[in-house]
């Protein structure tokens, strides 16, 4: 049975996030003002990868600033600094025709968009819970045992409403561990998906039985704000980790331009049955990964006047809209606040996907809007 466009370490305990160390989000030893390119080296023994990277440095006058293995693809990814006076796009074209290179691309930037039966004291303020019929859904399933990877900023691991809900906390942003537990956007997304139910605290998540895998690939920009940015290589590291660890749902409450490497990784995830949910961007040119075939693209909708309304100009591929105006959720330091934006809509659909997967683990990502809409 399929789930479709309608719509993590086993038994691990959440602890301090592990990660690398440049300003937050910048690769080690990188000049943050310099352009960078990302090169994929085809499958080979590690000593050959090192040799090929060195040869490419000499051939094109580049400097290696970061490299790692993408285990899900069996390839080596190398980030090079573009020589002063050279255009990154021109270098990518030359590298793409080099026989030693599997693929080459610029590093893209992605942005987030944040803008009764329960004893949880703020549940009555969650209009989206009523719109999504969560009270009835929770009698059927709470998403228990489903691993949902939140590819986002960090998460407040000590938040009272997230106690026991964070299975894994992993950092992929250089120096990101320093702000992991005070990051706003990821905390908001995680709470919407899986805040504990009936704990006499705060709110209720869409799938309060699900396991959150907090994978930090984005950083707050500016620092301390609700907004966050990510790039190609931080996202690639997080997605590769999620695939290798067999997560069930990948949540992307973010969007950006089409990205070749991320497209390959997400197709690999989809081929393995991972449900991928992503927020639609403000324009067609920045609606990736929602625009990728097989990914469930989610539009934000205003449900405050009753029901869900698909915004004017909605793209045909987007079959779902979810609440995205004044949505109450968790924020760091044990607090709560209202958010708006498609980031929140995507998070709620990821929760619905977890609810369905808990009842039928054989659901697949092929297009089938009915199960989520009926839920």
Helix content: 25-40%
Please identify the structural class as seen in this structure. Answer: alpha/beta
**Per CATH, which architecture?**
3-Layer(aba) Sandwich
The largest sheet, given as strand count, sense and whether it forms a barrel, is: 7 strands, parallel
Q: Name the CATH superfamily assignment.
A: Peptidase S8/S53 domain
Describe this structure in words.
The protein is α/β, with parallel strands linked by helices and 375 residues long. It has one domain: Peptidase S8/S53 domain (Rossmann fold), CATH 3.40.50. The chain is 25% helix and 23% strand. The protein has helices at residues 46-60, 88-96, 127-131, 134-140, 184-194, 232-244, 260-271, 342-359, 370-374, and strands spanning 36-41, 63-70, 75-81, 103-106, 109-112, 147-152, 166-171, 211-216, 218-220, 228-231, 249-252, 254-255, 275-279, 296-301, 320-323, 327-331, 335-339. It has a 7-stranded parallel sheet with strand order 7-8-6-11-13-14-15, with helices on both faces. Strands 2-3-1-4 form a 4-stranded antiparallel sheet, with helices on both faces. A hairpin with a 7-residue loop joins β9 (218-220) and β10. α6 (232-244) runs parallel beside α7. The longest helix has 18 residues, at 342-359. Mean pLDDT is 83; it is low at 1-23.
SSE layout and pairings?
Blueprint (H helix, E strand, L loop, with lengths): L35 E6 L4 H15 L2 E8 L4 E7 L6 H9 L6 E4 L2 E4 L14 H5 L2 H7 L6 E6 L13 E6 L12 H11 L16 E6 L1 E3 L7 E4 H13 L4 E4 L1 E2 L4 H12 L3 E5 L16 E6 L18 E4 L3 E5 L3 E5 L2 H18 L10 H5 L1
Parallel strand pairs: 6-8, 6-11, 7-8, 11-13, 13-14, 14-15
Antiparallel strand pairs: 1-3, 1-4, 2-3, 5-10, 5-12, 9-10, 16-17
Helix pairs in contact: 5-8, 6-7
